[in-house]
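Section 3.1: Structural characterization of target chains.
Under the original work plan, the team committed to producing a structural model for every single-chain target entering the pipeline before any wet-lab resources were allocated. The record below documents one such target. The sequence was received from the expression subgroup and is listed exactly as submitted; it comprises 563 residues.
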Amino acid sequence: MPFNQFGGRSHSSCLNAALSLTHDVMEARAQGLVSSFLAVDIKGFFDHVDHDRLLDVMEHKGYPTNEVKWIGSFISERFVRVQVDDHVGDPHPQIVGLPQGSGISPVLACIYSAIVLKHLNRHPIYDETTATCVPVGPRAYVDDHGFHAMGADLSTNVYTLRKTLDTATGILTRIGMTINPDKCDLMHFSWQHGDTSSPSITTTLYGKGITITPPSSIRWLGFHLDRKLSFRHHVNLLAKKGHAIICGLKVLGNTIEGISPSNLQLLYKTVVVPAITYGCQLWFNPDKPSHSLLRPLERVQHKALLAIGGAFWDSQEEALQILTYVPNLESTIRKLYRSAALCIPRLPISSEISRRLPIHFIPNDLPLEHHVIPPRHMPFPQPTSTGKHANKGSPLIRMADTIDVNMERSSPFHTQNAPHSYRLSSQPFAGRFFINKEACKPADRKSLVANQRMWLLSSQGRRTLNIFTDGSKTNRAAGWAVRGIHAGQVLFQFNVPFARRASSCHDFHHFIYFLLFLLSPKRPNTRSNHDMALSHLILSYLFFSHFKVTPSRQGKQIVLENR
């Protein structure tokens, strides 16, 4: 499937589709262009998948024969019955359509309809009469397709969008699918002073003339987009939704035998918080948070905390947060923002998000085509951080600026990442992470300790920050301890116990990532210390089952070097 189909695949989400769209809109604004976005919906997406053509498409794409046969067995010999009240009709064989509710149905439907995006990627549509020649950017999430046009004026965008809509309609008709005219939405993005024009698209779909008029805002993939991408309408609607959910939670807890405050808090975190923070990565700026956007959502949380804690309406917000063990909303949004940013290095290098990252985010050891041959449907080349039109308003660029450029990447779609594979495509800490396969024998422990002490007293050891970790047993509870030694002095040490019956440390791998970030010589706070060029990490851990090291009472010795 093309990478601009964000649905039906792993390492992709609605947020990625919205990030790519908002980035193109802000990039067009930086180039002095205006943008128009046309959202269309495929009618009966799962119900119009022809079985024979689906199998032909999979064979043409090179899927193994056994997988094609399995898919054929999955979609064949299915029957449909129509029920009206108490009357159930006779079964009829179903030769078209996929069963909804199955996890594989969206994937198969996206493969079946991928010809639309593939054609628009190979044969981009743009206005030849203008000097901009910026192609229309297609993108989709399962059955929700969107076409983004950029030009010098809105009339040019309307022309290219009409042409794109006619092309997509013709391709979908050939494969037995249709566009729902009632679910076509148009939005113009313009920041030009005094520009209030909103031209409509007038075309013919299936022999019937339709006119698509742009409203004040449109809803696409749950995100409400307005003319200037202010997201005020989006936040206000989510705040109203949060107030409605909290009213329902108050009904559940306002009874004699109602749910407890702890369960109310659990419902708030699992139901209300995801609802009111949906899409917060698009409008939140970690450097300059917009209080006008945060304030409506903070009122929702304040109302929820009053219901959870049973407090008076004029109670202080900080006291309610301490009482209910709920952090402030800005901290929650910052955590979601950071989590979304950390997912960027895990994306494929050919994904739509990676193609829009600044050029210094692309590793130098990639093939040549990743650097000089961008796809034809990409409207703009990869941005630079110090270019003339540096796009500082793009949510994607802001998010990319919060992560380290040298963060190790992984290839999620590499063949070695298949379930039957036993190795990763990109080994973590390659060339820096060494594990001794055999434990130190009891007779060799004294010599090992002596060698380590000699190394610590050497000139190289004195220029090195050494971190020792050791499995600890405190009050019959497993845990870990950390001690940092530099130039023969202990700089820091602390112990963290785990649960009593803990059998392994699930956060140990993340702990190593954290230490690498702290010890990186490229960080600003370590550049002044030229002597600390090497970090030596010696680990002795009770449980280290992730790397298949046999646990023992003394643990294993692991050496990690940051060159």
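Residues 232-253 form the longest helix (22 residues).
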